[in-house]
Automatic annotation (TrEMBL):
This is Methyltransferase domain-containing protein. The keyword Hydrolase does not apply. GO terms for molecular function: S-adenosylmethionine-dependent methyltransferase activity. InterPro entries: Methyltransf_11, SAM-dependent_MTases_sf. The lineage of its organism: Bacteria, Pseudomonadati, Thermodesulfobacteriota, Desulfobulbia, Desulfobulbales. It comes from Candidatus Electrothrix aarhusensis. Keywords: Methyltransferase, Transferase. Residues 134-181 form the Methyltransferase type domain. The keyword Coiled coil does not apply.
Length: 292
């Protein structure tokens, strides 16, 4: 169960005013531009109406499974080619922030159905089970300097202008607030529902240049990168141009290869692992003195 988002940090994503009212249990009303937003079950906020779009076979399976967060978690752990070697780091950074400030506001931006802890609020453009605020993450419905930590895990490749999201993250973080961001480097195309970009380590540093960098390391390592490519390569090479056969073979090669990914717990420590990492984890802080 995720943490309910406190209404006091909300603002209108359209006109940016903080003057919102809650005339009834189902409505958020902007007193400046008159826009109305929805509330479900008292604490799930809808700032956009989600739309469906055309996605691939594997992605369709993923989207179906995402309706069942427990099953989705198992699938990510056991079938996905990517070993999330930073999994425990995510839990640890949340825990250590809460030890110093048990009222800290922590958002998982682009959470999907994932629920990292009961102290993290989930934000996504789709209304998955655990999501607390449904909104466009490149125009967030939160006030400036209102959030203590933002997790953003394998999300920025799916937005057409990651700079906009980064600028919003910077805006809503308190000075000294922490950004924990995972960005893919060597991964196959995976629309969810879109997929636009990858980043090298210097690229990621550049994108997040306004933050004070504390750490940048491999999250998914060289084995994850290799397995993703190998699974798709085998499916392409042995399906002879027949897409339904490719779909079946791809599922089969995923089932066959996944156990090897755990080698990455060792290999991410190699000094050159970043050359072919599957993804990077970036930890940084918004400077206490605003330099932007
Ligand atoms: Zn407004």
């Amino acid at each position: 169960m995720a943490k309910i988002i406190d209404r006091s940090i909300l603002q209108c994503p359209s006109c940016r005013t903080e003057r919102l009212s809650f005339p009834d249990e189902k409505t958020i009303l902007c007193q400046q531009c008159g826009k109305q937003y929805g509330i479900q079950n008292g604490n799930k906020y809808f700032f956009v109406t989600p739309s469906e779009s055309g996605i691939s076979f594997i992605e369709r399976i993923k989207e179906t499974v995402k309706k069942y967060p427990g099953v989705y978690r198992l699938l990510v752990l056991f079938i996905s080619p990517v070993c999330q070697t930073d999994y425990f780091k995510q839990k640890k950074i949340v825990k250590s922030l809460l030890q110093g400030n048990k009222h800290a506001i922590i958002l998982n931006l682009g959470s999907g159905p994932t629920d990292i802890s009961a102290d993290v609020s989930n934000v996504d453009m789709f209304p998955y089970v655990n999501v607390d605020s449904v909104c466009d993450i490149s125009r967030l419905p939160f006030k400036d300097n209102s959030v203590d930590m933002i997790l953003n895990i394998a999300v920025l490749e799916h937005v057409s202008e990651p700079e906009k999201v980064v600028s919003e993250v910077y805006r809503i973080l308190k000075p000294g607030g922490i950004l924990y961001c995972v960005f893919p480097f060597i991964q196959g195309f995976h629309a969810a529902p879109y997929d636009f970009t990858r980043m090298t380590e210097p690229g990621l540093r550049g994108l997040l240049a306004h933050f004070d960098t504390q750490e940048i390391s491999s999250a998914g390592g060289p084995t994850s990168a290799l397995l993703w490519i190998l699974e798709e390569w085998l499916a392409i090479a042995f399906s002879f141009g027949i897409v339904p056969l490719y779909n079946i073979l791809h599922l089969f090669t995923m089932f066959l290869c996944w156990p090897f990914k755990f080698l990455d717990f060792l290999l991410v420590k190699h000094p050159k692992a970043k050359n072919i990492a599957s993804s990077f984890v970036y930890i940084g802080r918004k400077p206490t003195k605003d330099v932007k």
